[in-house]
Amino acid sequence: MNFKRLTRHLLTTPRRVKRAFPNSALVAIEQAIQRSEAQHSGQIRFAVEGALDGRPLFRGQPASERAVDMFSQLRVWDTAHNNGVLIYLLLADRDVEIVADRGVHARVGAAEWERICRVMEADFGRGDFAGGVIKGIAAVGEHLVRHFPATGNPHNELPNEAVVM
Question: Structurally, how many domains does the chain consist of?
Fold first, then answer.
């Protein structure tokens, strides 16, 4: 068990999450998703979790595993063209993960998702959480535009609201 990580998670309160993502930031993120999805047929979700608790924390669950759990729980996989993408932030670790459905992942690949995550994490390190997420949405959207162009009949399969856990 990593005591430094345990302490970070115990000290990352809902108040810290609210400070990093006030309502105005959540609205801006939702609008960025909406603007992005107007340009392609893909589906983007953003979720931020302040900290792990209970079993996931004590067994040392990494953000990458937690992101896959959230991908499933938020049903991002449940799109007609397998083109859903989850941007997940575990705030206590300042670790961002992108999980893409098989239709998108096969065309973009892990290296590109990793590059986008590192750019976002650099913004988070400067305290620019909303800006980092909005840049990440734009970068993901560029890939979706290339591989899943708009069909002319936009259909929003997943909610655009940010999920705060």
Answer: 1
> What is the model's pLDDT at position 18?
97
Question: How far is it, in rounded angstroms, from Cα 162 to Cα 33?
Answer: 9
CA–CA separation, 82 and 110 (whole Å) = 16
Max CA pair span of the chain: 52
Strand-pairing partners, residue 86, are 45, 99
Residue 84: phi, psi to the nearest 5? -90, 145
- In the predicted structure, residue 71 carries a pLDDT above the cut 80: yes
Helices H / strands E in the chain, number of each: 8, 4
Q: Tell the burial category of 148 from Cβ atoms under 10 Å away from its Cβ (0-12, 13-18, 19+).
A: buried
* 85 touches 98 (CB < 8 A): yes
Which of 56, 78, 81, 58 lies closest to 67, judged by CA? 56
For residue 154, the model assigns a pLDDT of 67
Residue-range definition of the domain harbouring residue 52: 3-150+157-164
Triad 127, 111, 52: Cα angle to 5°:
50
CATH classification of the domain holding 41:
3.10.310.50
